[in-house]
Specification:
Length: 372
C-alpha cells in the first residue's frame, strides 16, 4: 500500500482526537480476553480499536431508522459476521439482540461505512516514488520490471434460484458454480491496491478491466509506462502483461515461470482474505439487480484486510489447500492482439529472460498465505 506507517498513525491520532486515547470509553470488546477476541473476530484488540474509532467518526453522519446499539456494538456484530459468515448467537445474546433481522441491518450499515473508507485504506501507488518502490519489490521477487501490481478476478460464491433461469445463468461462472466477481489488484506484499464493484459471475475479465476505473486510467497512460500482471482471461495490452500462451523457447518459458510466481501472490492474498473473513466463502442469495450489498461486504473485507496487515495481524491457520485462482473466462472467438503490445512483451522477455540467471530468485522468495 502507498501509505507509510506515519500516515496511518496520523490518521489514528486524528480519529482518536487529541489526548482522547488516554480516556477511551468502555467497549463491549473489553469483555473478551485476547485469545477469545481473535477467535471471535480474527483481529487483535489494537486493530479492532482502530477500526471502531474509524467507523465511529463516520457513523455521525449515518441516519438509522431504529438505532438500538452503540457504535462499538454494531462493529462487533459486523466483525463477527465477516469472520464466520454467520451472526454468532453468543454475540447477539451478549448485546441483547433477539432477532437476526436487525443484525442484517447492522451488518449492511457497517459494511456501507467501511466500504466508504476504501479511498483512505485501499491506495494505488500514485507518486513516482511509490510506483518505483512497488515495482522494485515485484521485480525482486520475479525478475519482471516495471510492474505496479497483480490483477485477477476474485469470485465469491453466492446462492441464486435455479427456477429464475435468466438470472441464474448470469451468475454461473466458467467453473459452473454461481458467483459474483470483483476485479482486485494487489502488490507483492499482499496489500490490496484496488477493488472494483462486483459483477455477475459470468462477466468476462477483459470486460471488467475495460470498464473499470483503474483499467481506464492505466490504458490512458495516467500511471506511466508500467504494467499490471494479469492471467489468461485478460488481453495483452500496453499495460496488461499476460503469459505467453505457447512458449517457443527457453526464455519465454522462464518468463512464464516468473509470471506465475508473481501471480501466485494474488492467489495467496485471496486465500488469506477468505481465511480471515469467512463470509466471503458464501455470500448468500443475490440478484442481478441488487449487487450493492454484496459489493460493499467485499470492499469492506478488503479495507479490513489492509488494516489488519498494517497491524501485523496474521490470518487464522489454513484449513486445507489454498483455493486456486479462477482460470478466467476466455472469448470463444480469436482475439486480435495489439502488435505494439506483443513487441513490448517480447522486448521485455529478450532483455530480462535471455540468460538462465535472469528472473531467478532465492528460495526465500516463495509465496505462501503466511507471507501476505
Amino acid at each position: 500500500m502507498a501509505f507509510a506507517l506515519p500516515v496511518w498513525l496520523a490518521v489514528q491520532e486524528e480519529l482518536l482526537g487529541h489526548g482522547a486515547a488516554d480516556h477511551e470509553p468502555p467497549s463491549c470488546f473489553d469483555d473478551f480476553d485476547d485469545e477469545a477476541l481473535f477467535q471471535m473476530f480474527h483481529l487483535t484488540r489494537s486493530c479492532i480499536a482502530f477500526i471502531t474509532d474509524a467507523i465511529r467518526i463516520r457513523m455521525k453522519t449515518v441516519v438509522m431508522d431504529n438505532p438500538e446499539l452503540p457504535v462499538d456494538a454494531m462493529v462487533m456484530v459486523a466483525l463477527n459476521y465477516y469472520a464466520h459468515g454467520v451472526s454468532s448467537s453468543a454475540v447477539l445474546q451478549r448485546l441483547g439482540l433477539s432477532e437476526t433481522d436487525y443484525a442484517v441491518v447492522v451488518i449492511s450499515t457497517v459494511s456501507d461505512v467501511i466500504a466508504g473508507m476504501s479511498d483512505q485504506f485501499i491506495s494505488f501507488p500514485l507518486t513516482r516514488d511509490a510506483r518505483a518502490n512497488v515495482a522494485f519489490k515485484i521485480e525482486k521477487i520475479c525478475g519482471i520490471p516495471n510492474v505496479l501490481g497483480v490483477l485477477a478476478p476474485a469470485h465469491f460464491r453466492i446462492r441464486t434460484s435455479p427456477y429464475e433461469r435468466s438470472t441464474f445463468r448470469a451468475f454461473v461462472n466458467s467453473l459452473s458454480y454461481t458467483s459474483v466477481v470483483s476485479q482486485i489488484m494487489c502488490d507483492s506484499d499482499g496489500n490490496i491496491l484496488s477493488v472494483e464493484h462486483c459483477c455477475v459471475g459470468s462477466t468476462f475479465e477483459q470486460e471488467m478491466w475495460e470498464s473499470s476505473f483503474k483499467g481506464r486510467e492505466m490504458e490512458n497512460e495516467l500511471h506511466g509506462p508500467y504494467w499490471v500482471v494479469g492471467g489468461k482471461g485478460y488481453h495483452l495490452s500496453k499495460h496488461v502483461l499476460t503469459p505467453v500462451s505457447e512458449p517457443a523457447n527457453d526464455k519465454e518459458g522462464r518468463f512464464n515461470e516468473a509470471h506465475t510466481k508473481i501471480h501466485n501472490v494474488m492467489r495467496a492474498t485471496l486465500g488469506s482474505l477468505r481465511r480471515r473473513f469467512r463470509c466471503l466463502m458464501q455470500l448468500g442469495f443475490a440478484q442481478e439487480t441488487s449487487l450493492n450489498k454484496k459489493s460493499n461486504i467485499i470492499k469492506a473485507c478488503c479495507v479490513l484486510h489492509n488494516i489488519a496487515k498494517k497491524f501485523s495481524v496474521p490470518p487464522p491457520p489454513a484449513a486445507g489447500k489454498i483455493e486456486p485462482l479462477h482460470p478466467g473466462k476466455q472469448q470463444s472467438t480469436p482475439v486480435e492482439v495489439n502488435p505494439e503490445a506483443l513487441k513490448a512483451r517480447q522486448k521485455l522477455i529478450d532483455v530480462n529472460f535471455s540468460l538462465v540467471t535472469s528472473g531467478q530468485n532465492p528460495p526465500s522468495n516463495n509465496i505462501t498465505e503466511d507471507n501476505v
